[in-house]
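Practice problem: predict the structure.
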Amino acid sequence: MNAHLDAPALQQLAAELEATPPRPHHSGLLATAGRALPGQPFRFALSRGGWYRPGGVVRADGERVAESLEAWAEAELAGCGGDLEALFERHRGEGLIATRLAGRTHYFVAPYGPAPADFLQLEIEELHEVLDRRLFGDEAPADLPELIDPLCPAALEAHPVAPPHYRFRRLTDMRHAVARLPAPVGQLHPLARFLGEWAESQARAEKHFCDHWIVALREHQDRYRNPLLSAAPVSLHARKLKPFPWNLHAHGADAAAQLKAFDRAAGYPGAWYFHMVAGALAPRALAGSLAGDLDAGYSYLREQETKLLKKWLQVPYSA
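Answer:
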């Protein structure tokens, strides 16, 4: 997926990034990435957080039992002949504690060409291991998933177990990633269409696409175990734009002022259209209202925006 580093170099970069202690503004991480990819200066784009995953196992005194709760539970269960009751009896009096990894994903971008997809996207997880819950309660868990991630855990205060650390997630050449996206014959993947429309808009003349958007990527397998890639644009400005007071009854000069205010807040012309297509920060009903103004003879939209709106009305899509 990344044309700028071969596999050994990518592994080396990942190891160096993970060995870098987290710092404010990610200065150390950016310096490390810059040394590995000279001429491709990365800049911070966005953080997405609020997620967690199972961590490891520790004793009440902080002694480490296992780095991975899942691996430990599977190995212990196998050692008990698959008998969860026996596993429970073996460890119930040890006061074992499960930890969790509280995480944020940081996105960094480095444009290398004028086209919207001409940029590298570096994704780094920042993980902080904290106490989560007592591993065993008064009764044996019903099954292995209940042991690893119970619905009603015996929760503990989330005291830190270890300092925060980085974990490399992926480095993507977005041009190559977009070329891999699946689409029906004769059609474009929604992200490919979104990028193509950005290239047709006045926004392209203002700043690069990755100054305003990153791409959320997910790799999975289809039912035949073939690898598939899904992708969707994510705005860097969603938080500040979310409370924007849309008035769908505005027409003419009032509607024009409303669109102008939204574009100004987003930082580029035509932002209302792209946020109507992706992110839902501009309501879909806006399209019909603006189309009505066009039919009534109003001409406050830019030529490029009028073309994009008419095309979307003919063939709408969700990105």
